[in-house]
Amino acid sequence: MNAKERIKKFWNNKPCGTFGVIPEEVDLPYFEKIRDRRYKLEPFIKTVVDFLSLKEKKVLEVGCGIGIDGMEFSKAGADYTGIDASETSINLARRYFEFEKNNSPLIVADTDSLPFVDNSFDYVFSWGVIHHTPNIRKAVEEIYRVLKPGGECCIMVYNRRSIVGAQLYVLYGLFRLNPFANFKKLFAEHHESPGTKAFTNKETLLLFKKFKDVKIVNIVTPYDLRIGRNRYLPNLFKYLIPAIVGFFKVIKGRK
After folding, report:
1. Which of 41, 94, 209, 254 is buried most deeply by CB count within 10 Å?
2. Which whole-number Å values give the CA distances from 230 to 15, 32, 75, 171, in the listed order?
3. pTM higher than 0.85, yes or no?
């Protein structure tokens, strides 16, 4: 099994937001619960992305998962398309969209080989996805390719020099008597799907060097405040952490 197949297997078994818990018969409340949990943990998504400003714009989501953000784009009036490499995720997304009587296209496709012609979309969104693909450079090139001239992207990847990175170092470096543990290897072997990547600002700028007006903002997340599997410090603590070590690195740019 190659790297791409291992990653697909991981997300087929554990689509984003489901924690691997998928009932035989899903219903609308199942998706609404996942939606509510997502925006409770990551309320800044709706600040980073102005869904309403994308009304009637052609929007592509690269790595749509089970369709939570995609539904927000659609409800805001965007001409939305979602892709994901996980067949299980796309099947769940289709069920969610069926419940909401929404027929937006949801397609099984790889991030590094988008099935669209050049200059197809006004806006490309990808939240915590492309750092899972083995060939992230190709994924960024594909995002650039399918954007229309002047089109914008909003991409989130993980920040290597983050509190979460420090947590991984303590758990899988220091606690295992390996003080020289490599941070790239820690993310690749111990965070989510096999081969997960995390980036510095310098590396991120190199990845997005074709884009114009690139801006990078780091966001402190609840995951930086995690003290157990599903336990977090009070939200107030995030104001004590400098943004530079926040786990989410949001990149915005245009073609």
Report:
1. 94
2. 17, 19, 30, 16
3. yes
Residue 161 has pLDDT above 80, yes or no: yes
Q: Which pLDDT tens digit goes with each residue over 85-99?
A: 999 999 999 999 999
Round to whole Å and give the CA distance between 250 and 204: 10
User: In the chain, where does DSSP find H-type helix?
Assistant: 3-13, 28-41, 45-48, 68-75, 87-99, 136-146, 163-172, 183-190, 201-207
pLDDT higher than 80, residue 17: yes
In order, the DSSP letters of 77-136 are T-EEEEEES-HHHHHHHHHHHHHTT----EEE--TTS-SS-SS-EEEEEEES-GGGSS-H
Of 223, 172, 128, the closest CA to residue 183 belongs to 172
